[in-house]
Design brief:
Helix 6 crosses helix 7. It contains ten helices and eight strands. With 317 residues, it is of the alpha/beta class. The chain starts with a strand and ends in an 11-residue tail after the last strand. It has an eight-stranded mixed beta sheet with strand order 7-5-6-4-1-2-3-8, sandwiched between helices. The longest helix has 34 residues. The chain is 49% helix and 18% strand. It binds uridine-5'-diphosphate and magnesium ion. The site of magnesium ion has 5 residues, from loops.
């Protein structure tokens, strides 16, 4: 058994890896000699994998994991976590937006608070655009409102977990993964470590608007069925309005009014049509996820593992 595992998903991070390796190793060595650094290459298109393989060849605490293709942040993370053997597990991004030096205070916090999860909560975010900060703020607050689980706001995947929290997380088979939410769902005792988030060390964000929207839909459908219920609420409200309109129309008709009202008709048709499309789309999101899940495909495929005795050739056919 290892004392500490540090898991880092990496996608096109060639510029960050050397500094990452140095800072994370220093932070880990300040705590223990018995650690492993798991670097997962998520199908990068730059030199990320050769660099990781080099690091693994030079430093026997480094485990390089090469996925078969780009599986996305949450699945790359899952792949790394599935190989982690530590009693404590730290998740951190490759771009050093989250400080590795927080490891020591997070471990201390875990002990004094007897917690199973210490999650990083961002007080500020440097070097990010107003739009990113605003959408992120909105996202966390909206999700908290929608969800049945108590999701902490302004919290990414940067966190320290105990082995039993990790075991609980890995026992969840869902394909659409929103890991920070899934960890919150586990329960046990979870405490916040507040910190200031730095700007990216180098390179650019791998979370453009499209991926952020994808994550939002994954998070919403994964943690709430409120959007499905909303169809019934809409239905009830519309039926009430419809009754009033019907009564009005009949009264006018009885008093011999001529047919008029192309405008009102158009308004109603367009509103109802778009409302129905929206709700059909929501149904589709849930149904599509049900379908993907029912196929039961593996969450990720590993092409190669470098050293730490190749971790038993895990996942390689
Ligand atoms: N990442 C990944 N696969 C992807 C996209 C991102 O493994 O398809 C990794 C990336 O290398 C980084 C982390 O996920 O370590 C967070 O990505 P990023 O820093 O681009 O997101 P942001 O901090 O801008 O939200
Ligand atoms: Mg980042």
């Amino acid at each position: 058994m290892t004392y500490l595992s540090i898991v880092v998903p990496c996608y096109n991070e060639e510029l960050c890896l050397d500094t990452l390796h140095r800072r994370v190793s220093d932070a880990a060595k300040a705590v223990t000699d018995d650690y492993e650094l798991i670097l997962v290459n998520d199908g990068s298109r730059d030199r990320t994998w050769p660099i990781i393989a080099d690091l693994a060849a030079q430093d026997d605490r480094v485990v390089g994991v090469d996925l078969s293709r780009n599986h996305g942040h949450q699945l790359a993370l899952t792949a790394g976590l599935s190989l982690a053997r530590g009693d404590y597990i730290l998740i951190i991004d490759a771009d050093l937006q989250d400080p590795p030096e927080a490891l020591q205070p997070m471990l201390d916090m875990m002990r004094t608070e007897q917690a199973d999860v210490v999650y990083g909560q961002r007080l500020t975010r440097a070097g990010e655009t107003f739009a990113k900060k605003f959408t992120a703020k909105l996202f966390y607050r909206m999700l908290k409102k929608l969800s049945d689980v108590d999701l902490p706001v302004d919290t990414g995947d940067f966190r320290l977990m105990t082995r039993r929290a990790l075991a609980a997380l890995m026992a969840m088979p869902e394909q659409s993964r929103f890991i920070r939410g899934m960890v919150a769902w586990i329960g046990f005792r979870q405490v916040a470590y507040r910190y200031h988030r730095d700007a990216r060390l180098a390179g650019e964000t791998n979370y453009p608007l499209k991926k952020m929207l994808q994550l939002t839909v994954d998070a919403t459908t994964g943690f709430s069925i409120l959007p499905l219920r909303m169809a019934s609420y809409f239905g009830v409200i519309l039926a009430a309005i419809g009754m009033v309109l019907l009564a009005y129309t009949l009264v006018r008709w009885a008093s011999g009014e001529t047919v008029q009202g192309w405008t009102s008709l158009m308004v109603i048709v367009v509103l109802l049509g778009s409302g129905q499309m929206l709700i059909a789309g929501m149904l589709g999101e849930y149904l599509g996820r049900l379908y993907m899940q029912s196929k039961g495909r593996p969450l990720f495929l590993i092409r190669e593992v470098k050293t730490r005795h190749e971790i038993g050739q895990v996942g390689i056919p």
